TrEMBL record:
Protein name as it appears in the record: Uncharacterized protein
SUPFAM superfamilies: Metallo-hydrolase/oxidoreductase (SSF56281)
Top-rank taxon: Archaea
InterPro entries according to UniProt: RibonucZ/Hydroxyglut_hydro
């Protein structure tokens, strides 16, 4: 199983769906399980951290017209510019990520507290010289999008976790995420958590440090022997 798919993605798989959106994985068989999201709002569809794939515009169209692309992690530029330019919309960057605007070959707009015209508020998750990440939270249906700090891909999870803290953050987990109570949690790596998300998040944060040795041992074995 490759760590990361390459070339033009000709197929993709849904990794979560609800009334106001859907998630997809462009390369379903890659180890990284890079997931992206289409959020339906009163202002249109916002596409989050997209990995482009043939035919994915049909998914967007199910929920309306694309109003913008959102990047939530400084390393997740992915195909955001390509999707934004194809739909003639800007890439929205939380204030903490405004420094990557020049790296994107597309118009950008800085978001301070709220995605314009939506119920999705912006929350800073990690902000240091090496890692800048924000999350968004939809108050209308308690949907949270966190694209790197936590994930459901196999290499994020230890023991019986449904959701795990990123391996590089496990010793200092982003506790501020625990202040929110999502019904569903959309991640950047792996399938979305579509039920009991608050419980899964609390369990992941609470046991992050204690389960770290087991996760590291599992990942080392996987990368060496797979």
């Amino acid at each position: 199983m490759p760590m990361k798919g390459s070339g033009a993605a000709t197929g993709w798989a849904e990794s979560g769906r609800w009334d106001r959106g859907a998630s997809w994985i462009a390369y379903p068989h890659e180890r990284m399980q890079r997931a992206s999201h289409a959020l339906a709002t009163d202002a249109g569809v916002f596409v989050v951290d997209p990995v482009d794939a043939e035919g994915v515009d049909d998914l967007f169209a199910e929920f309306g017209e694309v109003a913008g692309v959102v990047v939530l992690l400084d390393r997740h530029k992915r195909d955001s510019a390509a999707v934004a330019n194809r739909h003639d919309v800007p890439v929205y960057l939380p204030e903490a990520l405004s420094g990557i605007a020049d790296d994107l070959n597309a118009p950008t707009e800085t978001v301070h507290r709220q995605l314009p015209g939506t119920d999705y508020g912006v929350h800073t998750v990690v902000e240091n010289p090496f890692w800048k990440e924000a999350a968004i939270y939809g108050d209308a249906d308690d949907t949270m999008v966190v694209t790197e700090a936590v994930g459901t891909a196999e290499y994020f999870r230890a023991g019986n976790e449904r959701l795990g803290v990123h391996p590089m953050l496990r010793l200092l987990p982003p506790k501020k995420l625990g202040r929110l109570d999502p019904d569903r949690l959309l991640v950047g790596h792996g399938e979305s958590v579509m039920d009991d998300a608050t419980e899964a998040l609390a369990y992941a944060l609470r046991g992050s440090r204690g389960r770290t040795p087991g996760l590291y041992a599992k990942n080392l074995k996987s990368f060496v022997f797979d």
